[in-house]
C-alpha cells in the first residue's frame, strides 16, 4: 500500500472529482458514510456524540456524520469552532443540511468558556482539522484540543488527529494535538502514523477506502510503502523439481563470543529454517561443541580465538555473509572486520556489534562491499548514522544514508523501516511487542542471510525477511501470547509463516 503526502492526497482527491467524475460534496458524503458505518459498528447502541467542527473539509465530514448519526437516533451535539470567518463550501452545504434536525443541536464555540463537559461514555468526534493543517494549533483550537485530551471520552478522529501534521512533526507543538482512541484515515494511512512518538495521538488507526481514482493512485510516485502479503509473495522465487542444495546457496554466518553463543545458535537455526542450501557458522573455538550439538545441520568453522571473532575462513565458496550477532567488539574483532570488508565480494548482512564497530570507526563506511544490508535497532542506528530528535528526521537520515552508501538500511522496531539504495522506504506491518525480547534480532539476521544465499537481491531479501520474521512472531503470539514469547519461538513458527506467506 502506498503512503502519500498531504499534498499528494489533495491532488488525488481533485483528480477523482474530475475524472470519476463525482461532485466534491458527493465524495464528502461517500467518505462520511464510511466514518458513520464504522462508528455505528463500534458503538452500536445510540450514545451521546459531541462533534467538534473546524473550518475546512474535515469539518464538512464531521457535519455529514452528525446528520447520519442523528438520523440513526444517536443524540448529537455539534460544536462549530469559531476560528475563521471562512468555511469551506462543502462544509457550508453540510451545515445547511443539519438545520432543524431531530436529535441534533448546534452550538458555536467562541471561547473555551463555552466548552461542554465531556463525560467518559461520550463519543467525541474530532473533525477540527484533517490533512489541510498548515501550522501548529494556537488560540481557541489549541484550548479545545487540550480540553478533549483532558477528558475520558472515547475520541474518534476523522482522517487525522487534529493538530498532527501528516508527515513532518519535527517543529509541531506536541501539546496541541488530539489524543485519539481511534483514527479513521481515508484511503491511505499517513506517514506520521508509522512513527512511535505519534502513537499516543493516533491511537488505533484504520484505513477506510473511499474509492479514490485508481489511475492516479497507480501513477503517482511516492518513496513510502507499507508491505502486504500479496506484494511480498510476488517477490518469492519458485522452487523447481530438480533443484538441489547447491541451488540455494552456501552462506557464512560470523557470530557468537564467550557468553553469547546463543546468538550464533539462534541466527543459524533461523537461517536453516528459511531455505538456505548450506550454512557454515564461524564461531570462537569454545563454542564448537555447543554449536555442533544445538544445530546439527550447520557446518562449523572455528576461530583461532577461544572467545571472540578474530579471523574468517576462505570466502570463495560463499554466496552471502552475515556478521554481528553476539560477536562483541574487541580490538582484534575490529581488525578482522577491516580485513573482512576488504575481501568480501558478495552481499552481506551486518547486525549488532558489527554495526557498533563501524559506528566507532566511521572510516569503515567507505570500505563497504556492494549489496550490504544493515539491521540496526534504534540505538545501533544512532551509533551508525547519528542522533535525531524525532522519527521523521530519523527516517530522512535513514533514506539519505542508504542512498549515499548504496546499501539497504533496516531500522528495526514496530513498523520496521527498510530503506533501499534508490531512495524507497518500505514499512513492515507484521510483528508485535512480544518480539521485544532477547535474540529476536539475531533471528532476523539469520533469515536475511538465508535469503541472500538463495539469490535474492539485498533489498528483496530484507523485505521478505522482515515481513516473514514479523509474521512468524504474530503466529507464535496467537498460540503463546506475547509475554512468554521467546526468540526460539519465532524460529519455531517460521514454517507456518512460510506456509501463510505462500498461501
Ligand atoms: N478532498 C477529498 O476528496 C476529501 C477530503 N476530505 C476531508 O478533507 C480534509 C482536508 O480538507 P481541507 O483541505 O479543507 O483541510 P482541513 O479541513 O484540514 O482544514 C483546513 C482549513 O483550516 C485552516 N487551517 C489550517 N491549519 C490551521 C491552524 N493551525 N489554525 C487555524 N486554521 C488552520 C486552513 O487555512 C483551511 O481553511 C481531509 O482531512 C478529509 O477529512 C473528505 O471530505 C473526503 C474527501
Ligand atoms: N513492538 C514491536 N512490534 C513489532 N516488532 C517488534 C517490536 N519490538 C521488537 N520487534 C522486532 O523484534 C526484533 C528485535 O531486534 P533487536 O532489538 O535487534 O533484538 P536483539 O538484539 O535482542 O536480537 C526486531 O526485528 C524488531 O522489529
Ligand atoms: K480530524
UniProtKB/TrEMBL annotation:
AMP binds at residues 412-416, 441. K(+) binds at residues 58, 126, 162. (6S)-NADPHX binds at residues 57-61, 130-136, 159, 263, 326, 377, 442. Binds 1 potassium ion per subunit. Residues 228-501 form the YjeF C-terminal domain. The keyword Ribonucleoprotein does not apply. Its EC number is 4.2.1.136, 5.1.99.6. InterPro entries: Carbohydrate_kinase_pred_CS, CARKD, Nnr, Ribokinase-like, YjeF_N_dom, YjeF_N_dom_sf. Residues 9-218 form the YjeF N-terminal domain. Gene3D superfamilies: 3.40.1190.20, YjeF N-terminal domain. It catalyses: (6R)-NADHX = (6S)-NADHX; (6R)-NADPHX = (6S)-NADPHX; (6S)-NADPHX + ADP = AMP + phosphate + NADPH + H(+); (6S)-NADHX + ADP = AMP + phosphate + NADH + H(+). CDD domains: YXKO-related. Keywords: ATP-binding, Isomerase, Lyase, Metal-binding, Multifunctional enzyme, NAD, NADP, Nucleotide-binding, Potassium. Catalyzes the dehydration of the S-form of NAD(P)HX at the expense of ADP, which is converted to AMP. Together with NAD(P)HX epimerase, which catalyzes the epimerization of the S- and R-forms, the enzyme allows the repair of both epimers of NAD(P)HX, a damaged form of NAD(P)H that is a result of enzymatic or heat-dependent hydration. Homotetramer. PANTHER family: ATP-DEPENDENT (S)-NAD(P)H-HYDRATE DEHYDRATASE, ATP-DEPENDENT (S)-NAD(P)H-HYDRATE DEHYDRATASE FAMILY MEMBER. This is Bifunctional NAD(P)H-hydrate repair enzyme.
